[in-house]
Amino acid sequence: MPRKLIFKIPLIIIFLRISVFSVSAQNKLEADLLTIQSKETVDLQEIKDKENRKREFLIKKEDPLIEKINPIKLTLGSLLYIYQTSISKHFSADCLYEPSCSNFSRDVISHFGVIKGVFLTADRLTRCNRIAQTSLHPLSIDPCSGHSADSFTKYQFKPIHHHH
Amino acid sequence: MICIFLSATFLTNVKAAEISDLWHKADSLYKVRDYIGSIVEYERIVFLSKNIGTTQKAIFKKAEVYKHIGNYPKVEEELMRIGIRDPKDSLFATKAYELAFAQYMKENYRDAENTIETYSALLETSHPKLKSLYTLKALCHNQLFEFKEAKECLTKSFREVASEKSKYLNILAFYKDTPKYKDPEKARHLSILPGLGQAYCGKIFEGGISFLLNASALSFGAWQVYTEYYFTGYVVGVTLLQKFHSGGQHRAETLAKERNRKEIIRFNTKITSELIEGPCP
């Protein structure tokens, strides 16, 4: 083996090691860039979903005809829908509960009817303020969202039977 | 109690062979995806080992497990435990990169940028990790809408690699049309005149609705006062006006933040896509 080549061997080894390191570093960077990209794609989708949030109407397609033509339900449903889609975001109010007062109102009216629904909505609205906040049960508060759980199911006398 | 203390003293006096077994156990647990188990075993190595190199390696591996499961706050916490000051140590640059990456994923872009700035200043200019560090720093600057600095970082990142010139030029072309920053604070202040903040964020129709709602509340209050219903005018009119006005300000601020986030994600995605898949000559 020529003498010059013997001297070059360590240099070649060092060069190869640096190349291997650079290639692995490049692959690692690409893997991390992919992680960043996928995380940011999810973030973007979340913002888009928030912007195009669909609201349910009080009266559903599967409801009986008599409920679909009920003028009181139609009026209440329309008012709730307008409030949720157009007014709510301009209004400076952060609801204490989960579901929010407007969603709760929609739930109670559709499950218990107009009379009990309106009374329960009025009850809920009077409880959604800073004074009533002090009497919330600590265990009912979700630590992540900070909202107190207050679903319509708490207000039914009979349990709901699911028909299969 | 005495027995517990004696056992602890006895247990901490481990031999190198036992540490090797612990490495094997921790690595095996990681391979079979028992991440919590491997985290515990790496921490056991940190606790039992007296060698600083072994301790640092175990902490680093633990941080890697956290990274794998996407727990970036813990990655940052663990990497902060590694006290390393010698830039010639290979762990120095690797720690800098992983720490900055975790901070980026936590959306602490300024922290990530500062970490890279601090560590890269101590590294040799030919260090192979600098390319990754500058690329990440460019993304941080993008997130902070500092496009001039981002371009400088990309120039540094591609300086050593002549073969990737076309990729570099493609990326630089994106900087001719950068997203415009909408200042959330400015949007909030503009909303003193209802609707103007929303219009500043590009939502003119929404701004119009906000203006109408505020005008209606004000008109109602004024009309009630004019008809001498002072109490109703104050309670209903002023309360509604205050609610709509502060709500509009908050909404304008949120819109500006969301718009900035959306625009910068789209811009950064173009750059990361080019970096990952861009044509290589």
Describe this entry's structure for a reader.
- With 164 residues, chain A is mainly alpha-helical.
- Chain A has 2 domains: 11-51; 65-155, no CATH class.
- Chain A contains 6 helices and 2 strands; from the N terminus they run H-H-H-E-H-H-H-E.
- Chain A is extended and about 70 Å long.
- In chain A, helix 3 packs antiparallel against helix 4 and helix 4 (101-112) runs antiparallel to helix 5.
- In chain A, strands 1-2 form a two-stranded parallel ribbon.
- By secondary structure, chain B is an all-alpha fold.
- Chain B has 3 domains: 14-69; 84-160, Serine Threonine Protein Phosphatase 5, Tetratricopeptide repeat; 184-277.
- In chain B, 77% of the residues lie in helices and 0% in strands.
- Chain B has 14 helices and no strands.
- In chain B, helix 2 (16-31) runs antiparallel to helix 3, helix 3 (35-48) packs antiparallel against helix 4 (52-68) and helix 8 (130-143) packs antiparallel against helix 9.
- The longest helix of chain B is centred in the C-terminal third of the chain and has 48 residues, at 230-277.
- The radius of gyration of chain B is 28 Å and the shape is elongated.
- Chain B starts with a helix and ends with a helix.
- The interface between A and B is medium-sized, with 30 and 33 residues.
